[in-house]
Design goal:
mainly beta; 3 helices; Pectate Lyase C-like; elongated; single chain; 8-stranded parallel β-sheet; 212 residues
């Protein structure tokens, strides 16, 4: 996988997220900003573009980023739980040690994105498009990836317990070091997925096979 990572120049000046949204309300464009220790709920940032930005130790739960666009952006130690990123765009973005439980990513376009050591439990990626995306040591329990179109997607040591993959082809994806217990997936879509022996035994239940 040729994953392009964010390349940011040093940004020393910290600023307030709500102030930036207000100041740029005429053109919806926010660039070269660092947001640190922001604690706000219900932020409205629909259609805003964030380019070359850093979000560090921010807590912005239940916020609306629908139709927003993030390019060359780093999220570190942030909490955006129950926020809406549906129909948004992500390009060269990193999430490290972040919490986005219950967040919505429906019909979102995600490219060159790295998610590590984060909590995405109950996330909804349904109808999203993912290209060159790596998820590592991340909790995706009870999440949804239904009808997802992907190219070069990688899971490394992720917890996918009770994850839904309905009408999402999994051919070529290596799940061998992930937790797959209780996933929901159509048999045709499971064809070609890479699993270990214990996972194969667990998945045999989907076929109605009883192994003695």
């Amino acid at each position: 996988m040729k994953l392009l990572r964010p390349e940011l120049m040093e940004i020393n000046e910290e600023t307030d997220l709500k102030e930036q949204i207000k100041e740029n309300s005429d053109h919806y464009d926010i660039r070269e900003k660092k947001f640190r220790n922001i604690e706000e709920e219900n932020i409205e940032a629909q259609k805003y573009e964030f380019r070359n930005c850093i979000f560090e130790s921010c807590k912005c739960i239940q916020s609306n980023f629908k139709n927003a666009y993030f390019s060359n952006v780093i999220f570190h130690n942030c909490d955006f739980s129950n926020s809406n990123f549906s129909k948004a765009g992500f390009n060269k973005v990193e999430f490290v040690n972040c919490k986005l439980t219950g967040s919505e990513w429906i019909e979102t376009d995600i490219v060159d994105t790295y998610i590590k050591e984060s909590n995405f439990a109950y996330v909804n990626f349904s109808d999203a498009s993912l290209k060159d995306v790596k998820l590592e040591e991340t909790n995706l329990q009870n999440g949804s990836m239904n009808e997802v179109v992907w190219k070069d997607m990688m899971f490394c040591r992720c917890d996918l317990t009770k994850m839904e993959f309905m009408r999402t082809r999994l051919k070529g994806i290596d799940f061998s070091d992930c937790e797959l217990k209780g996933i929901t997936v159509g048999i045709p879509d499971l064809n070609g997925a890479i699993v270990n022996a214990f996972q194969a035994l667990e998945l045999s239940n989907l076929l109605g096979i009883k192994i003695k």
